[in-house]
Input
Amino acid sequence: MRIILLGAPGVGKGTAAAMLAQKYKAPHIATGDIFKDEIRKGTELGKKIRETVEKGNLVSDELTNAVMKERLSKPDAKDGFLLDGYPRTIAQAEEIERFAKPGLVLNFVADRKTIIARLSGRRVCAKCGAIYHVANNPPKKEGVCDKCGEKLIKRKDDDEKVISNRLDVYEEQTKPLISHYKKKKMLAEINSSYGMEKIGMIIRQCDDAIKKA
Output
């Protein structure tokens, strides 16, 4: 089972991926997490990634492909994986075909209004990093972290204007990928506009797509 997950920020694919990974005993591999880990460890790769990101640039296809080829060669990915954040370009999509050909692409879709509401309502603990939502997962005391008692903050990238711009960029970048996988008849659309209380409806759609594939 080799699955690629597509979806805009805030669409809920990370939550679904974690549940699917547990259900199907396959690793949930997120490109962003790998990059952050390399930066944190201060590896040569991490230094290159940090330098690129700090300049406001995207990590190159060449570097991203090399990182993912290495990660997908590990034993835990031998029998399958759930890829989150890769590929992001046609060049990356063509490259993964050479070393770990995917069998299915799940494209998580929710309307713009829903996504903006999800992300703009997010609050983060300034100390421990715990994440809350003003509507869906509020702290016991408004503005205060349940875990450590520190103040909760709204990150700059959770501002509605910033979110809207991120969605514009994502849509522009992803359109070619969606067309690419539609032509290959590998794409299944997942309606992820349901709230967390109905996450089972999202997982059921994923299960159906996996069975068909």
Notes: Residues 160-183 form the longest helix (24 residues). The mean pLDDT is 91. The beta strands are 2-7, 28-30, 81-84, 104-109, 122-125, 131-133, 152-153, 187-191.
